[in-house]
Every structure is written in C-alpha cells, then in structure tokens.
Design brief:
The chain is α/β, with parallel strands linked by helices. 24% of the residues lie in helices and 21% in strands. The chain is globular, with a radius of gyration of 17 Å. The chain binds flavin-adenine dinucleotide (FAD) and FE2/S2 (inorganic) cluster.
Length: 214
C-alpha cells in the first residue's frame, strides 16, 4: 500500500499496488492512472515523501518443475515481472499478455528475455473474441500445469471458465478496493466457495479460482 504524505486528510486511504520488483534499496511499481489517487501519484516528484506499508498478503504459487502459464490483462502484468525475476526455472514459464493501450505503455518488452511469450492487442470486438479463443487454447495446453492470472475481473472470469472446463489449476489475483490493507476495515472482502466473506488483503490477493467468487 502506498500513500503520499501530500494527500493530507483529503484522500484518507492508501492505494494497493503489486510489487514488480524490489531489492534492498528500491521498489519498482507499475501504476495506471484511473482516478484521484493514481493521478496524484503520477504527479509526485523526486524527493516527495511517500508512506509504504507491505509486503501484504500472499503471492502466486511457485512450482519450479511445473509448466506455468501467466495470463496478464493490461496493468495486471505488474506482478509478473517480479515473479519471472524470482522464478528458479524461467524456461518453464510462458507469459500471455492481452492489452488495449500500445504495448510500449507496459513493461512487456523488459520481461520477455527469459520466458516464452505472446501478446495480443484488443482494438475492436473481433480482437476480444480472438483473445478469448486463444486463452481457451492456452489453458487447455496448460491444463496439467499451473496457470496464474491477473487482470480485469472479466478477464479473470474468462480464465476461470476455461480452467473449470479443462480441470486446470488456476490462481487469480483479485484487485478489490482496499482501505487498511491489514484485515481491519473489511473494505476489501469477497465471497469464498463456502459463501463466507473473506478479506482479500490478508487472505489473498491470490486465490485458487475455484475457491472464490469473481
Ligand atoms: C492487490 C492489488 C494490486 C494492484 N496492483 C496494481 C498495480 O500494480 N498497478 C496498478 O496500476 N493498479 C494496481 N491495482 C489497482 C489500484 O489499486 C487501483 O487502480 C487504485 O487503487 C485506484 O485508485 P484511484 O484513487 O486512482 O482510483 P479511484 O478514484 O478510487 O477510482 C477511480 C476509478 O477506478 C476504479 N478502481 C478503483 N480501484 C480499483 C481497483 N482496485 N481495481 C479496478 N478498478 C478500480 C473505480 O471503480 C473508479 O472507476 C492493484 C489493486 C490491488 C487490490
Ligand atoms: S483492506 Fe481493510 S480489511 Fe482488507
């Protein structure tokens, strides 16, 4: 979670972002401007003070020997940079990236040196149908492996539909709105497969797709 000091009382809550990569000295995030908070973050200048708390919650499963398919929709590509960097056997990874804005707006090209990869742009309804079809093909190919998905909710729903059809193991990273990030405010809850509400910030954001409602 990050919250610039300059927000003052006007924007009370911090905003959650995936950690793209981190070392002892720096933290890299990819941030898409969608509203007030992210617009104000985009205006920050070098030297401005920002409160950061985390890492929070869990991450995607890492199974070094398992062929693993990463499905990224738009800015949902963010968590996969760190995933690829830290994975011990990146030759087992494939990244599928569906996007609307030009590919150069994302970090895609900096992430593909060590993994198999494929991207598809969506500019019209036919493109969307082609993306959905390709997701079906890929998910069937990886049905005995591990599939990870991060992107808009309809994108994750499509992935889940195919995963259920093919009996594939799929994890989704939910992007619910968040307040505290630590399980206290209940601002982020979703329903699990037992019809119970769970906090996405502390029980997720990554869930097995068949254990959570999307
Ligand atoms: C675990 C997690 C990881 C995330 N990682 C990233 C990341 O790496 N990069 C990134 O750019 N964004 C990421 N997001 C989404 C990001 O947190 C939101 O886009 C951000 O909080 C919006 O803040 P805002 O004040 O600009 O928008 P607001 O002014 O609060 O809202 C503006 C518009 O954006 C929509 N919106 C707000 N929050 C979300 C959300 N969580 N998901 C989808 N739409 C939203 C609102 O419905 C509204 O239409 C992540 C979210 C979560 C929960
Ligand atoms: S963000 Fe407050 S409980 Fe999850």
């Amino acid at each position: 979670m990050i919250r610039p000091a300059s927000w003052g009382p006007e924007l009370v809550w911090g905003r959650p972002f995936s950690i793209c990569s981190a070392d002892g000295k720096s933290l890299t995030l990819f941030i898409q401007k969608v509203g007030r908070g992210t617009s104000r973050i985009a205006e920050l200048e070098k030297g401005d003070s920002v409160t950061v708390w985390g890492p929070l919650g869990n991450g995607f499963a890492v199974e070094p020997e398992t062929p693993t398919l990463m499905l990224a929709g738009g800015i949902g590509i963010a968590p996969f940079r760190g995933y690829i960097e830290q994975h011990p056997t990146s030759e087992n990874l494939k990244l599928f990236f569906a996007h609307r804005m030009p590919r150069a707006c994302y970090s895609y090209d900096s992430m593909t040196a060590t993994v198999r990869h494929q991207s598809m742009v969506e500019q019209n309804p036919d493109d969307l149908q082609a993306i959905i079809k390709e997701m079906g093909v890929l998910i069937e190919q990886y049905k005995d492996g591990l599939i990870l998905c991060c992107g808009p909710t309809p994108f994750m729903r499509t992935a889940r539909k195919f995963a259920l059809e093919h009996g594939a193991r799929l994890q989704v990273s939910l992007e619910n709105h968040m307040g505290c990030g630590v399980g206290a405010c209940l601002g982020c809850v979703c329903k699990n497969d037992k019809d119970k509400y769970v906090q996405v910030c502390t029980n997720g954001p990554v869930f097995w797709a068949d254990k959570v409602e999307l």
